[in-house]
Here is the input.
Amino acid sequence: MTEPTTPPQHFEALRDFANDLLSHSGLQGPTFLWDRSIHDDAQSDDAEREDIPVAPPEEAKQTIDAPIRWYLRAMDSLSPTPQADGADGINRTDMPTFYYSTGALSGVEAVVGNALMSTRWCDAAGNLATALITTSSFLGSIADREGEGLAYLKRLIDETRIYFDSVAQHADPVTGGQALSGIVSAACQDDFRFNPVQMVQLISCSLPFAQWDDTRVFVYDAIDRAQATMASVERDIRSNDKDDPAGNLMMDSEGNLVDVSAGGIREQFDMSMLMLRHDVLRMCGEDEQADRMLSEHSDIEPMADAYAAQLIRRGQWRQLRDFAGRVLADDPYQQMALIPPQLAPDEWHTILDLAQYELAHGQ
Here is the structure.
């Protein structure tokens, strides 16, 4: 056994980090998409929610669309090019950078704010789905060079996830299933299909339903629908590859053409879905299966890090030594995704040092 080169103070910080990682999940192991703050925020919002009506679907759509149309028309009037090819008659390359302060998303804000304060779960979920789809579509039509539009969409997804913790907790199973189905449908729409990370984040609205036997089926149905959607995306992209080699070129927020490959999208989707399935196991209380999944996917950096943190928290130093040795044998240069570099300056060698140090000192 070699003498560890990392000073013991790093080991104490590593142990603190592992315990903190668990505290974020509120469960018996680390999670990737779930966080206990989702439930805490939902409980806080529950105190403010009331049985109030939400805007009817058509009125909600009009409220959302009006400021967006105004913004796109204003952008069109500024276009220096006589022939435009953007969604509303303007080339995105010529479009000024989008800023949230323009108020283009003020209608979305109004509809979402109304929905989040209502306990009429299905009606509210329908308006949230409309807001998500329209916002995602809008981001595909603007020059979001500063990322303010994307930041807003991420916030909207987070607010929806918090809301659905309340839906899972308080709605009857039939109502909860119907509300969730609307959000899953939104996640499987075109504008999310090509963004697997955002898609799976929306699908993760189903996670709170995994806690109970009579609603757990909703989670697996959401996963099946996401899988079917991704299979359809792959077929479409491969068909375009065959018919038109340039057919998968899409324009990013700065007007640059980016190749959207089936393999790249599938890889992101599979990684995100693997983490979602892991979190489902945690929510179900199937912690042994969740730990086994982490161990079996030691080549995936976040999952390897999470398993190392789990072993550190439990003080399972022999298992940690063996696991770190396996990671290093498979890939001596595997990096860490969750554990900060200041805690593991030599990455997996630091983890191996920790295990050897604790074993050497009789822990």
